[in-house]
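Here's what a typical entry looks like (LrgB family protein):
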Amino acid sequence: MKDLISNSIYFGFLISIIGYEIGLLLKKKFKKAFFNPLLVSIIFIISFLLIFQIDYESYYNGAKYLSYLLTPATVCLSIPLYQQLTLLKNNYKAILGGIFSGVLTSLTSILILSKMFALTQEQYITLLPKSITTAIGIGVSEELGGIVTLTVATIILTGILGNILAETICKIFRIQEPVAKGVAIGTSSHAIGTAKAMEIGEIEGAMSSLAIAVAGLITVVAASIYANFI
Protein backbone atom coordinates (compact mmCIF):
# COMPACT_ATOMS: atom_id res chain seq x y z
CA MET A 1 0.00 0.00 0.00
CA LYS A 2 2.80 2.37 0.96
CA ASP A 3 4.68 1.62 -2.28
CA LEU A 4 1.53 2.18 -4.32
CA ILE A 5 0.96 5.58 -2.73
CA SER A 6 4.60 6.62 -2.95
CA ASN A 7 4.93 5.72 -6.62
CA SER A 8 1.71 7.38 -7.75
CA ILE A 9 2.19 10.70 -9.54
CA TYR A 10 -1.27 11.75 -8.38
CA PHE A 11 -0.72 11.11 -4.67
CA GLY A 12 0.72 14.51 -3.73
CA PHE A 13 -1.87 16.35 -5.78
CA LEU A 14 -4.81 14.44 -4.35
CA ILE A 15 -3.69 14.57 -0.71
CA SER A 16 -3.23 18.34 -0.99
CA ILE A 17 -6.73 18.83 -2.41
CA ILE A 18 -8.26 16.53 0.21
CA GLY A 19 -6.52 18.37 3.04
CA TYR A 20 -7.68 21.74 1.75
CA GLU A 21 -11.26 20.54 1.30
CA ILE A 22 -11.28 19.26 4.89
CA GLY A 23 -10.13 22.73 5.96
CA LEU A 24 -12.94 24.38 4.00
CA LEU A 25 -15.53 22.08 5.58
CA LEU A 26 -14.22 22.74 9.11
CA LYS A 27 -14.18 26.49 8.57
CA LYS A 28 -17.71 26.44 7.14
CA LYS A 29 -19.02 24.34 10.01
CA PHE A 30 -17.31 26.01 12.99
CA LYS A 31 -16.83 29.50 11.49
CA LYS A 32 -13.57 29.99 13.40
CA ALA A 33 -10.56 31.80 11.96
CA PHE A 34 -8.27 29.11 13.39
CA PHE A 35 -9.69 26.59 10.90
CA ASN A 36 -7.84 28.25 8.04
CA PRO A 37 -8.00 25.80 5.09
CA LEU A 38 -4.30 26.17 4.33
CA LEU A 39 -3.28 25.61 7.95
CA VAL A 40 -5.59 22.59 8.24
CA SER A 41 -4.24 21.11 5.00
CA ILE A 42 -0.64 21.53 6.18
CA ILE A 43 -1.38 19.75 9.46
CA PHE A 44 -3.32 17.03 7.62
CA ILE A 45 -0.57 16.39 5.07
CA ILE A 46 2.22 16.30 7.66
CA SER A 47 0.21 13.92 9.85
CA PHE A 48 -0.60 11.68 6.88
CA LEU A 49 3.05 11.47 5.79
CA LEU A 50 4.22 10.69 9.32
CA ILE A 51 1.57 8.04 9.99
CA PHE A 52 2.21 6.18 6.73
CA GLN A 53 5.96 6.91 6.80
CA ILE A 54 6.00 8.46 3.34
CA ASP A 55 8.98 10.66 2.49
CA TYR A 56 8.52 14.24 1.34
CA GLU A 57 10.02 13.63 -2.11
CA SER A 58 7.31 11.09 -2.92
CA TYR A 59 4.66 13.56 -1.87
CA TYR A 60 6.21 16.46 -3.78
CA ASN A 61 6.41 14.49 -7.04
CA GLY A 62 2.68 15.02 -7.39
CA ALA A 63 2.19 18.17 -5.32
CA LYS A 64 4.64 20.19 -7.44
CA TYR A 65 2.01 20.51 -10.16
CA LEU A 66 -0.05 22.67 -7.82
CA SER A 67 2.95 25.00 -7.44
CA TYR A 68 2.78 25.78 -11.15
CA LEU A 69 -0.56 27.49 -10.52
CA LEU A 70 0.91 29.92 -7.97
CA THR A 71 2.07 32.55 -10.47
CA PRO A 72 -1.09 32.68 -12.65
CA ALA A 73 -3.22 32.71 -9.49
CA THR A 74 -1.28 35.71 -8.21
CA VAL A 75 -1.64 37.49 -11.55
CA CYS A 76 -5.42 36.96 -11.41
CA LEU A 77 -5.49 39.15 -8.31
CA SER A 78 -5.10 42.13 -10.65
CA ILE A 79 -8.74 41.76 -11.76
CA PRO A 80 -10.33 43.28 -8.62
CA LEU A 81 -7.67 46.00 -8.72
CA TYR A 82 -8.71 46.93 -12.26
CA GLN A 83 -12.31 47.15 -11.09
CA GLN A 84 -11.27 49.69 -8.43
CA LEU A 85 -8.93 51.70 -10.66
CA THR A 86 -10.69 55.02 -10.00
CA LEU A 87 -10.32 54.55 -6.25
CA LEU A 88 -6.62 53.81 -6.75
CA LYS A 89 -6.09 57.01 -8.75
CA ASN A 90 -7.82 59.12 -6.10
CA ASN A 91 -5.81 57.66 -3.22
CA TYR A 92 -2.50 56.66 -4.77
CA LYS A 93 -0.32 58.81 -2.48
CA ALA A 94 -1.82 57.37 0.70
CA ILE A 95 -1.76 53.84 -0.74
CA LEU A 96 1.90 53.96 -1.81
CA GLY A 97 2.86 55.63 1.47
CA GLY A 98 1.11 52.91 3.44
CA ILE A 99 2.77 50.11 1.50
CA PHE A 100 6.22 51.70 1.76
CA SER A 101 5.92 52.25 5.51
CA GLY A 102 4.61 48.70 5.96
CA VAL A 103 7.60 47.19 4.16
CA LEU A 104 10.08 49.27 6.17
CA THR A 105 8.33 48.35 9.41
CA SER A 106 8.55 44.65 8.54
CA LEU A 107 12.24 44.78 7.63
CA THR A 108 13.15 46.94 10.63
CA SER A 109 11.34 44.68 13.08
CA ILE A 110 13.21 41.66 11.68
CA LEU A 111 16.50 43.54 12.05
CA ILE A 112 15.78 44.47 15.67
CA LEU A 113 14.61 40.97 16.66
CA SER A 114 17.57 39.35 14.87
CA LYS A 115 19.97 41.50 16.88
CA MET A 116 18.07 40.78 20.11
CA PHE A 117 18.24 37.02 19.56
CA ALA A 118 21.77 37.09 18.09
CA LEU A 119 20.82 35.44 14.80
CA THR A 120 23.46 34.78 12.17
CA GLN A 121 23.41 36.75 8.94
CA GLU A 122 22.13 33.70 7.08
CA GLN A 123 19.23 33.30 9.52
CA TYR A 124 18.52 37.04 9.39
CA ILE A 125 18.44 37.12 5.59
CA THR A 126 16.18 34.07 5.57
CA LEU A 127 13.52 36.04 7.46
CA LEU A 128 13.69 39.29 5.48
CA PRO A 129 11.22 38.26 2.70
CA LYS A 130 8.63 36.85 5.15
CA SER A 131 5.85 39.28 4.20
CA ILE A 132 6.00 39.05 0.39
CA THR A 133 4.57 36.46 -1.95
CA THR A 134 6.45 33.17 -2.26
CA ALA A 135 7.32 33.64 -5.93
CA ILE A 136 9.31 36.80 -5.12
CA GLY A 137 10.48 35.75 -1.65
CA ILE A 138 12.27 32.65 -2.94
CA GLY A 139 14.27 34.75 -5.40
CA VAL A 140 15.21 37.30 -2.72
CA SER A 141 16.35 34.58 -0.31
CA GLU A 142 18.41 32.80 -2.97
CA GLU A 143 20.06 36.01 -4.18
CA LEU A 144 21.03 37.19 -0.69
CA GLY A 145 22.15 33.79 0.58
CA GLY A 146 19.32 32.78 2.88
CA ILE A 147 17.91 29.32 3.60
CA VAL A 148 15.22 29.06 0.94
CA THR A 149 13.19 26.25 2.51
CA LEU A 150 12.92 28.17 5.79
CA THR A 151 12.04 31.32 3.89
CA VAL A 152 9.11 29.52 2.27
CA ALA A 153 7.99 28.26 5.69
CA THR A 154 8.11 31.74 7.23
CA ILE A 155 6.23 33.24 4.26
CA ILE A 156 3.46 30.66 4.59
CA LEU A 157 3.29 31.08 8.38
CA THR A 158 3.14 34.87 8.04
CA GLY A 159 0.33 34.60 5.50
CA ILE A 160 -1.68 32.19 7.65
CA LEU A 161 -1.35 34.40 10.74
CA GLY A 162 -2.37 37.41 8.69
CA ASN A 163 -5.39 35.55 7.35
CA ILE A 164 -6.45 34.44 10.83
CA LEU A 165 -5.77 37.69 12.72
CA ALA A 166 -6.52 40.39 10.11
CA GLU A 167 -10.09 41.17 11.13
CA THR A 168 -9.29 41.02 14.84
CA ILE A 169 -6.37 43.42 14.55
CA CYS A 170 -8.42 45.85 12.46
CA LYS A 171 -11.10 45.82 15.15
CA ILE A 172 -8.60 46.30 18.00
CA PHE A 173 -7.02 49.33 16.33
CA ARG A 174 -10.37 50.55 14.95
CA ILE A 175 -9.26 50.50 11.33
CA GLN A 176 -12.50 50.98 9.41
CA GLU A 177 -11.40 52.52 6.10
CA PRO A 178 -11.55 49.77 3.40
CA VAL A 179 -8.47 51.09 1.57
CA ALA A 180 -6.41 51.10 4.76
CA LYS A 181 -7.52 47.58 5.62
CA GLY A 182 -6.58 46.24 2.19
CA VAL A 183 -3.19 47.93 2.11
CA ALA A 184 -2.32 46.70 5.60
CA ILE A 185 -3.36 43.11 4.95
CA GLY A 186 -1.68 42.81 1.55
CA THR A 187 1.56 44.43 2.67
CA SER A 188 1.92 42.28 5.77
CA SER A 189 0.56 38.90 4.66
CA HIS A 190 0.71 38.73 0.83
CA ALA A 191 -1.63 36.40 -1.13
CA ILE A 192 -2.89 34.31 1.78
CA GLY A 193 -3.89 37.47 3.63
CA THR A 194 -5.42 38.85 0.44
CA ALA A 195 -7.79 35.88 0.36
CA LYS A 196 -9.12 37.15 3.69
CA ALA A 197 -9.24 40.73 2.41
CA MET A 198 -11.44 39.59 -0.47
CA GLU A 199 -13.79 37.95 2.01
CA ILE A 200 -14.05 41.26 3.89
CA GLY A 201 -14.90 43.32 0.81
CA GLU A 202 -14.17 44.17 -2.84
CA ILE A 203 -12.20 47.33 -2.06
CA GLU A 204 -10.14 45.57 0.60
CA GLY A 205 -9.36 42.76 -1.82
CA ALA A 206 -8.37 45.14 -4.62
CA MET A 207 -6.05 47.22 -2.44
CA SER A 208 -4.53 44.10 -0.93
CA SER A 209 -3.84 42.75 -4.42
CA LEU A 210 -2.01 45.95 -5.30
CA ALA A 211 -0.05 45.83 -2.06
CA ILE A 212 1.28 42.35 -2.89
CA ALA A 213 2.98 43.52 -6.08
CA VAL A 214 4.25 46.87 -4.83
CA ALA A 215 5.46 45.48 -1.49
CA GLY A 216 7.28 42.71 -3.34
CA LEU A 217 9.11 45.17 -5.58
CA ILE A 218 10.05 47.46 -2.68
CA THR A 219 11.26 44.51 -0.62
CA VAL A 220 13.52 43.28 -3.44
CA VAL A 221 15.39 46.59 -3.28
CA ALA A 222 15.14 47.28 0.44
CA ALA A 223 16.11 43.73 1.51
CA SER A 224 19.41 44.00 -0.38
CA ILE A 225 20.18 47.12 1.68
CA TYR A 226 19.02 45.68 5.01
CA ALA A 227 21.05 42.51 4.37
CA ASN A 228 24.21 44.52 5.11
CA PHE A 229 23.07 45.62 8.57
CA ILE A 230 24.11 42.33 10.25
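Residues 2-68 form one domain.

More examples are in the samples folder.
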